[in-house]
Amino acid sequence: MALDLAQFHDAFFDESFEALDTMEAALLKLNVGAPEPEIIGTIFRVAHSIKGGSATFGFAEVASFTHTCETLLDELRGNRMQVTRAITDLLLKSVDLTREMLRAVQHKQPIDAQRMADVQFDLELAIVQKSAPVAVVVAAAPTPVPAPARSRAASVHSWRIQFRPYPQLFAHGNDPLRMLRELADLGDLNVVVSAQNVPALCDLDPESCYLSWELTVDTDATREVIDQVFDWAEGDCELVIRDEHAAAAPTPTRVAGEGREGATAEVVETPKQGLGDGSSIRVSTEKVDELMNTVGELVITQSMLTQLGTRLTGSLSEQLRTGLAQLERNVRELQESVMRVRMLPISFVFSRFPRMVRDLSQRLGKHVELKVTGDQTELDKTVLEKIGDPLVHLVRNSVDHGIEMPQARAAAGKPEVGVVSLEAYHKGGNIVVEVCDDGGGLNRERILAKARERGLIGPQDTLTDEQIYDLVFMAGFSTADQATDISGRGVGMDVVRRNIKELGGGIEVRSTVGVGSRFIITLPLTLAIVDGQSVSVGSETYIVPLVTIIESLQLQAGGINRIGGHQEVFWFRDGYVPVVRLHEVFGVKPRATDLHEGLIMVVEGDGRRVGLFVDDLLGQQQVVIKSLETNFRRVDGVSGATILGDGAVALILDVPGLIRVASLRAAA
Questions:
Q1: Which pLDDT score, from 0 to 100, does residue 434 have?
Q2: Which of 475, 470, 426 is nearest to 448 (CA)?
């Protein structure tokens, strides 16, 4: 029965896209001049792996193109070519094209053959212009072929390798001579080639491999490095590897003979130190979301049981409550475990920016360095997916508007190379992402002039720095004199703020003229669960996110002032805070209407504070967010809903949105 390779396609595409990201990151680290062996080796292995996988699955065009890339990289790896900016640009273009070709194959769409031919021609031209021809001689009978001597103080290992390819080795994109060159790069290589299986000329198939090899490598390379040389040949050969220098029992051999039709060789592997060490599995996000939803329902059920248990009496009630308390602890641990499955490092987003900054700075004629810190900070996958576009806008603006031209920087006494920084870190229950640059900063007067020109503010209005910088987030606002394909059309910054607010986050700007700007984004760790304070207003219950609460207090009679005869405010710490009556916002009948009879909860959002007037505080709890927009429609001031322990539905307040709603009501 033939093996259906289509079942492995998804894994191949996922791994290939990740490998291309690794290749791109390594290319961006290349310096002009002599190739750096470790970096070139990383890049070469990616091209080699994708070529082998593409050939295995029958993606001939991808295999052909990556084979040409691999040839160029092999010239660099052998120090037969120097790294130039043109070579790096060409290889980056090859990464882009390979990514596009794989996406086309993945979605069963045609490949852009002309573009592929153009880039492949450029690669071949670079090889022809820079490399010298290499002669290869294969003996007709077992003949020792010593590799060039290498000076090594002492070899830790003497690897003896029996490499017997199956006939289909070539058809799957593997090149034995390249494997031998890789081994020769690791140390002193001795090769004995056997041609005893080569048939008569009339029976010879030029696409089949009939040779086999006995290899000995004296090197300090580990077994893992040796295995990597033969990675893509696994299943297309019999492979036995052992260390002749091993003092004790010989290293267990590996026969790479399973995984292809007709392969029956036994596999003997070195036992791994536990199945969990370095191992991972790929799980679709749909399955993780289903698991998260089920755990959410379990949390709700547990909450209902706990609430019911508090009302029970009798001899078994105490035992029941003890069991429910244990259940609550177990459910919380389960919930946290599932949440960790959803968490991914922000490096998945940050990894796109080194290439983007490099390309933008070249187009603009600027010298820009990108510094990234905190890229292993984790946040929810859903947040991660939606924060990418806002960060792209901010980084592009920093390179285009923030960083000055080299001449201007030199005249200002700055280094010609500008710096754009991306930083992520935890703060409280949130993730903070900062986009900073050491450019010219926001021009306060220019922003004011543009705002007055467009009628956004009055001629005599006086604004604070915070209010002025907030203007850049207004739809269509731009201070650029000329629109370009990079920025200056007034689209982007308003989208940035809207997208961040939809995630339950906020953004603020700090800038100093001549020094630079900082855009500070605050995001929730997850969109699935929130720690909240439940409050009652009349017969309704609302959930206020804990991260927005500053303090809860009870006002004394007469502690309220009015502005303009309408807006109620009270003095809190260092200033007046407006009062928002929740019963008026949501149209419910409260138990108390006098402010001193209820409670005031001081909350903060978008840098503004308000006092929410509620009847009572009920308690803190962790709740699972259910989307209102998916199940009903979007409601201003509400971020979602949850089901309480008694089965009732409670709205989860969106504090920044609630403040905006209250401001509009006050203005009206």
A1: 92
A2: 470
What are the Cα distances from residue 500, in Å, to 194, 249, 474, 659? 65, 60, 14, 16
Q: Is 365 left (phi over 0), alpha (psi -120 to 50) or beta?
A: left
Contact partners, residue 452, CB within 8 Å, separation at least 6: 458, 459
User: 346-524 has which CATH code?
Assistant: 3.30.565.10
Q: Hey, which CATH number is domain 529-667, 3.20.20.100, 1.10.10.10, 2.40.50.180, 3.40.50.11720?
A: 2.40.50.180
Half-sphere exposure of 249 (CA within 13 A, CB side): 3
Signed CA dihedral, 457, 462, 468, 470: sign only: negative
Kindly report, residue by residue over 170-186, the tens digit of the pLDDT: 877 678 887 888 888 88
Distance CA 161, CA 502 (A): 58
Helix (H, G, I), strand (E, B) or coil at 10: helix
pLDDT digits (tens, 9 = 90+) for 506-533: 888 888 888 899 999 988 777 677 778 9
Instruction: Judge whether 30 and 39 are in contact, CB under 8 Å.
Output: yes
Q: What's the pLDDT tens digit per position in 555-576? A: 887 778 887 667 888 888 878 8
Superfamily of domain 143-243: ACT domain (3.30.70.260)
Beta bridge partners, 535, equal 542, 617
Q: Any residues with CB less than 8 A from the CB of 388 and at least 6 apart, and which?
A: 349, 352
Distance (Å, whole) CA 95 – CA 150: 34
**Neighbouring residues of 360: CB distance < 8 A, sequence distance ≥ 6:** 368, 396, 399, 400, 486
Measured CA distances, 169 to 141, 157, 210, 211 (Å)? 21, 28, 10, 11
Partners of residue 417 on adjacent β-strands:
367
Query: For residue 420, which phi and psi values (nearest 5 degrees)?
Result: -110, 130
**3-class state of residue 575 by DSSP:** strand
Between CA 384 and CA 526 the distance in angstroms is: 10
- In CATH, the architecture of 5-130 is Up-down Bundle (1.20)
User: How many angstroms separate the Cα of 236 from the Cα of each of 17, 83, 208, 209, 230?
Assistant: 24, 34, 11, 10, 10
Q: What is the pTM of this model?
A: 0.60
